[in-house]
UniProtKB/TrEMBL annotation:
Its cofactor is pyridoxal 5'-phosphate. Gene3D superfamilies: 3.40.50.1100, Threonine synthase, N-terminal domain (3.90.1380.10). Pathway: Amino-acid biosynthesis. Signal peptide: none annotated. This is Threonine synthase. One of its GO terms (molecular function) is threonine synthase activity. The lineage of its organism: Bacteria, Pseudomonadati, Pseudomonadota, Alphaproteobacteria, Acetobacterales. CDD domains: Thr-synth_2. Its EC number is 4.2.3.1. The keyword Cell division does not apply. Residues 2-72 form the Threonine synthase N-terminal domain. It catalyses: O-phospho-L-homoserine + H2O = L-threonine + phosphate. Pfam families: THR4_C, Thr_synth_N.
């Protein structure tokens, strides 16, 4: 399996090289040269596998088969707080919450990052190399990446978060980790600014080379690959490949819903993909009226989705444009220059034949958390609530098709919103009970590339000394 860039200006690469590279050197994102796919009989044969074995089997289709995947997957999910790893909880006659938050940092990011940390270790040890990981977070990727990479000998990691725009639990999960290879920077800006800084560091070729930069955000293909198996697990549990299913995903950077799209591309009968947004609704506007125009990022009760520039949309655009890398490059460049992405009508129509968009404001989110609690006895975090509301609004007409909602975070990560909606304050697990007493360590920097690069360099040099 080889990988090509969506912008078509770098040679094809293998899995290991894509894992370490993160962003392609032409600014594009890596995608498989050809999508692997399984027959109906092959999907059926995967039913009932324990989750780590299913993940290993599917990752093997993406050119990672030379890694000890059975061991890596078994170790990655061994510490999860539920024996099923990704349990499905039925919320009503047809809506199911796929709980992806039983990992160490209580959000779906652990599903991929617990694997990636181990993959990095393996590949770096084999090559005798070391990397500096730079990542941007709106709250959850940061802690999951830090947890996965802390104290790893061949990795330094620097995470940028938007100052004051994460929940306190999210910030403390990052800034209370005192491992010497970990650094946190609060940037004076929003998540898009943090993500732009990360991409700018990758696009600064001398800096990228000097620091041997790697990525943990979903610009890194391995993140997407590692998020596919849980959609397969849920679909198989609900009767696929012999029954259609729909999927609803609370969406920000478009990585999680792209993984569901990839599961469909691999042969699973996913007949609808529902994209839930908060008031940062660029994707909903795109799907409703081909209006992909940037607005300022607005803070919301679901801060991890406070995003306007959804990185992974580029991967879908590449597919919608018939894998035309030049057209993808031009559309992305115009998006950055003009704040509006020109998507040809045919491509937009193709997207809307499968995807539906739904936006929910804070008031609606609180109402949905309250409703879920009253009617289903379920405590949902604000992101998951956007997903369940979207599922109810846009489920396929055929009531026999179940809807899988990605439950992306534990309610205890957002106790204030959950308490406002239900009167209940979900406690953190015992292992985190002292989170509010732990000492924090982080820098604060302006939204300035030179200042951020200097801080990254200083962190890497300190650890090399
Ligand atoms: C809890 C939570 N829900 C949803 C999302 C959105 O996921 P994605 O960025 O893959 O679209 C995020 C952030 O990525 C998140 O942390
Ligand atoms: N919501 C994310 C934003 C980054 O997304 P990623 O999937 O590209 O890492 C977060 O919590 O940081």
């Amino acid at each position: 399996m080889r990988y090509v860039s969506t912008r078509g200006q770098v040679p094809a690469r293998d899995f290991d090289s894509v894992l370490l590279a993160g962003l392609a050197e032409d600014g594009g994102l890596f995608v498989p040269e050809a999508w692997p796919s399984l027959s109906t009989a092959e999907w059926r044969a995967l039913r009932g596998l324990p989750y780590p074995a299913l993940a290993a089997r599917l990752l093997g289709l993406f050119g990672a088969g030379h890694l000890p995947l059975d061991r890596i997957c078994a170790e990655a999910y061994a510490g999860f707080g539920h024996p099923a790893t990704v349990p499905l909880v039925q919320l009503d006659t047809r809506v199911f919450a796929l709980e992806l938050f039983h990992g160490p940092t209580l959000a779906f990011k652990d599903m991929a990052l617990q694997l990636l940390g181990r993959m990095f270790d393996h590949v770096l040890a084999a090559r005798g190399e070391r990397v500096t990981i730079v990542g941007a977070t709106s709250g959850d990727t940061g802690s999951a990446a830090i947890e996965a990479c802390r104290d790893r000998a061949a990795i330094d990691i620097v995470i940028l978060h938007p100052r004051g725009r994460t929940s306190e639990v999210q910030r403390r999960q990052m800034t209370t980790v005192m491992a010497p290879n970990v650094a946190n920077i609060a940037v004076e800006g929003d998540f898009d600014a943090c993500q732009d800084l990360v991409k700018a560091m990758f696009n600064d070729a001398p800096f990228r080379q000097e620091m041997r930069l790697s990525a943990v955000n979903s610009i890194n293909w391995a993140r997407i690959a590692a998020q596919i198996p849980y959609y397969a697990a849920a679909a198989l549990a609900l009767g696929a490949p012999d029954r259609e299913v729909a999927v609803s995903v609370p969406t920000g950077n478009f990585g999680n819903v792209l993984a569901a799209w990839a599961a469909r591309r691999m042969g699973l009968p996913i007949s609808r993909l529902i994209v839930g947004s908060n008031r940062n609704d660029i994707l909903t506007r795109f799907l409703a009226a081909n209006d992909m125009s940037m607005r300022a990022v607005e803070p919301s009760l679901s801060p991890s989705m406070d995003i306007q520039v959804s990185s992974n949309f580029e991967r879908l655009l590449f597919e919608m444009l018939g894998r035309d890398a030049a057209a993808t490059r031009e559309a992305m460049q115009r998006f950055r220059a003009e704040g509006r992405m020109p998507v040809p009508d045919a491509a937009w129509r193709e997207a809307t034949s499968l995807f539906r968009g739904f936006a929910l404001d804070d008031e609606g989110t609180l109402a949905e958390i309250g409703r879920l609690h009253r009617e289903a006895g379920y405590l949902a975090d604000p992101h998951t609530a956007v997903g369940t509301a979207a599922a109810r609004a846009l489920a396929p007409e055929d009531p026999a098709i179940p809807v899988i909602v990605a439950a992306t975070a534990h309610p205890a990560k957002f106790p204030d919103a959950v308490e406002r909606a239900t009167g209940l304050r979900p406690p953190l697990p015992a292992r985190m009970a002292d989170l509010y007493e732990r000492q924090e360590r982080y820098g604060v920097l302006p939204n300035d590339l030179a200042a951020i690069e200097a801080a990254v360099r200083a962190h890497a040099l300190r650890n090399a000394a």
